[in-house]
């Protein structure tokens, strides 16, 4: 199988799983919880002040930011999805963190785009403390950014380590040549006398 096809299968696989989970959980919330209501199993009522499932809508960006920007974020989602699909094959084959991050970000953008196109707004349902209500797609974008940052940090650490090792290796032959030249000089001088 062609390497680009394999790469796209990874992207589509990661994004597909997250999109399916996102859409399924949003459907469950919309069909089982009235708008504005909340739900927790009775055994977890004590958790209600800290975490709960709610049915809420959002016409802005992730975590409820920039409300009433639905059309702007619809266009932006198409641009982000197009950019990820275009640039994905250009990622180095061994850079799995960037590939994973792009898959998660594609899933988040597509999951919320589906809501905007089908419902006209995004369904949010995860409520934790006083933090804005969010969904699986929002979480996917956030986790994708975290994976991206960790991947960049890890790659920088590896590059620094390789550069330090290369420096040590490149200095060793020079030092051994200098010491062999220095040890041969007294022999030459003693033979001349």
**What share of the residues does DSSP label as strand, in percent?**
5-15%
Total strand segments:
3
Count of individual domains: 1
Number of helical segments with 4 or more residues: 4
Structural class: mainly alpha
Evaluate the radius of gyration: 28 Å
- Report how far the terminal alpha carbons are from each other: 74 Å
Summarize the helix and strand pattern as letters: HEEHHEH
Q: Secondary-structure map with pairings?
A:
Layout: H1 3-32, E1 38-39, E2 51-58, H2 70-87, H3 96-118, E3 122-128, H4 136-192
Antiparallel strand pairs: 1-2, 2-3
Helix pairs in contact: 1-3, 2-3, 3-4
Observed structural traits:
193 residues; mainly alpha; three-stranded antiparallel beta sheet; 3 strands
Descriptive overview:
66% of the residues lie in helices and 9% in strands. It has helices at residues 3-32, 70-87, 96-118, 136-192, and strands at residues 38-39, 51-58, 122-128. The protein has a 3-stranded antiparallel beta sheet with strand order 1-2-3. Helix 1 (3-32) packs across helix 3 (96-118) and helix 2 (70-87) runs antiparallel to helix 3 (96-118). The radius of gyration is 28 Å and the shape is elongated. The termini are far apart. The mean pLDDT is 85.
Quick summary:
This protein has helices spanning 3-32, 70-87, 96-118, 136-192, and strands spanning 38-39, 51-58, 122-128. The model has no long low-confidence stretch (mean pLDDT 85).
């Amino acid at each position: 199988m062609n390497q680009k096809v394999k790469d796209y299968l990874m992207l589509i696989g990661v994004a597909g799983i997250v999109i399916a989970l996102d859409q399924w959980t949003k459907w469950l919330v919309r069909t089982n919880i009235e708008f504005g209501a909340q739900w927790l199993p009775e055994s977890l009522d004590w958790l209600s002040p800290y975490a709960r499932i709610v049915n809420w809508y959002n016409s802005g960006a992730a975590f409820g930011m920039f409300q009433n920007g639905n059309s702007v974020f619809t266009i932006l989602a198409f641009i982000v999805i197009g950019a990820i699909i275009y640039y994905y094959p250009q990622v180095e084959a061994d850079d799995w963190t960037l590939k994973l991050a792009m898959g998660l970000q594609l899933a988040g953008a597509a999951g919320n785009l589906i809501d905007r196109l089908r419902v006209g707004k995004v369904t949010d349902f995860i409520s934790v403390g006083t933090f804005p209500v969010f969904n699986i797609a929002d979480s996917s974008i956030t986790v994708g950014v975290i994976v991206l940052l960790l991947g960049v940090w890890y790659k920088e650490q590896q590059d620094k380590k390789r550069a330090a090792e290369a420096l040590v290796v490149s200095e060793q032959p020079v030092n051994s040549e200098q010491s062999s030249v220095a040890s041969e000089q007294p022999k030459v001088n003693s033979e001349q006398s």
